């Protein structure tokens, strides 16, 4: 949601200078299949419900630590596709990776797609993790962008998962998020309501500076759309009706800073500008309660704009905070080469 506000208040001069793109190529805005980015893509049915979540997984060599990525409002799990590829490379496939389309988004379908409450979305994350990783020794690194940051902070602060290795929030701060809500309906109305094709939607996302990485946009944007066939032909509309979720907006972000700071795990905050910090986070940062990384060259969709840089920081965060367990070696019961004293004649 904060992304839309940032786009809304951006100076008009910035729109006059779109990203440098070779538009002479007919394929520059063509959609890219996400299948090659993940080891497994499936619909996961939650036991005892009719809810089926679209999940994207990268399998590790050892399933001890799993990065769980929650996307922002109106987006999908594929907004992390490029980032996860870099993370897999940097991490040498040590950790598992899980992305998913949350309720009411992407290819996920539930018995109540309109229920985007903080409590429901948090429980969805827990249900998915428990279904895919039932081993109680599995540790989770929770990563959330915008709305996703509110969800993972709520899960971590309330210890809704047994083992949380780390908490990582991408470009969302309680103070600025709450201040932005008053503008949201106008911002949503300023977006195109439909597109003639997925390609047109990808082009709009780049030229409007919503996403600053065309490679990522080609993967993520199609998953945000729904295809509609009518008498006038085919059109693509937004999969998620964000305007209808207005009643949930305020509660998403209320108490976010306190939850983030109180979580009993190593913490990392990505932001595009230090000016976005509110008072609690400013104090917390000065007290060294969390790591902060600033990427001023990025827009709100930092994980799409600079996936390689964020992945590098995530990998360093993991390596710095993991507990080193030395390898065990068998110790012989007695020395194998005993020294003997020389005998006297």
UniProtKB/TrEMBL annotation:
<dbReference type="InterPro" id="IPR016812">
    <property type="entry name" value="PPase_methylesterase_euk"/>
</dbReference>
<keyword id="KW-0719">Serine esterase</keyword>
<protein>
    <recommendedName>
        <fullName>Protein phosphatase methylesterase 1</fullName>
        <ecNumber>3.1.1.-</ecNumber>
    </recommendedName>
</protein>
<dbReference type="Pfam" id="PF12697">
    <property type="entry name" value="Abhydrolase_6"/>
</dbReference>
<feature type="active site">
    <location>
        <position position="171"/>
    </location>
</feature>
<feature type="active site">
    <location>
        <position position="300"/>
    </location>
</feature>
<comment type="similarity">
    <text>Belongs to the AB hydrolase superfamily.</text>
</comment>
<comment type="function">
    <text>Demethylates proteins that have been reversibly carboxymethylated.</text>
</comment>
<dbReference type="InterPro" id="IPR000073">
    <property type="entry name" value="AB_hydrolase_1"/>
</dbReference>
<keyword id="KW-0378">Hydrolase</keyword>
<feature type="active site">
    <location>
        <position position="146"/>
    </location>
</feature>
<feature type="domain" description="AB hydrolase-1">
    <location>
        <begin position="67"/>
        <end position="312"/>
    </location>
</feature>
<dbReference type="GO" id="GO:0051723">
    <property type="term" value="F:protein methylesterase activity"/>
</dbReference>
<dbReference type="InterPro" id="IPR029058">
    <property type="entry name" value="AB_hydrolase_fold"/>
</dbReference>
